[in-house]
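#lab-general

N.A. 3:47 PM
ok so I finally got the sequence cleaned up, no stray characters, all 254 residues accounted for. can someone with queue access submit it? mine expired

B.Y. 3:52 PM
send it over

N.A. 3:53 PM
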Amino acid sequence: MLETQNLTVRFGGHVAVNAVSCRFAPGTLTAIVGPNGAGKTTYFNLISGQLPASAGTVHLNGRELSGLSASARTRAGLGRAFQLTNLFPNLSVLENVRLAVQATKEGAHRRGLNLWSIWSDHAALTQRALEILQSVSMSAQQDAPVASLPHGDQRKLEVALLMALEPAVYMFDEPTAGMSHDEAPVILDLIRQLKKDKTKTILLVEHKMDVVRELADRIIVLHNGALVADGEPGEVMASSIVQEAYMGKAKVAA
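B.Y. 4:20 PM
back already:
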């Protein structure tokens, strides 16, 4: 269970995220929506540790993560994908995934043992990386430099890296941003596959409301940094506060 309690961040006199308390259960995909500037990505940054909170806490399965760095939160089980890909462009596709697998595994590669043990461990890491690439339909590109990949394949690879980290929580920030009409369904199919694992929690920031309607089990709405709606997709999308704050039919008073 991922939980934020009164999570807040201030930039000078501006409150970008204002005392947001929310719980996210395994087996659920929650879409976080709201107008531009509502605080969605900032809320993600507070959860994943890219930004320090001014107040409030983040807990995962009862463990407080608030004082941990972004990398320590990743090791604790938070997996974050960004609007822009975060890859090693000069390494091959396989090397990128193998490094992500290696980061989560104990073995000879960490202990400096004899060469045979290190080779055996390396082979196991490579095999796991190959399995992940197959699951995202990228086996054919395993030897290609990441810099040579089209944008859509780089986004697929970023999902593969998340899978390699085996997180308890997947966090997707506009996963189809910058993708063509033909590329976007591939990423959405990967998210659908991840949804089948009911031990995982998925958070999704997405502006495309057709994507939200299809994938989300739950929607929360941020407006001016505050949580203004939370519930089942049909109910939330039909609510007057969402029509006003998100659809722009009227201006919600601060």
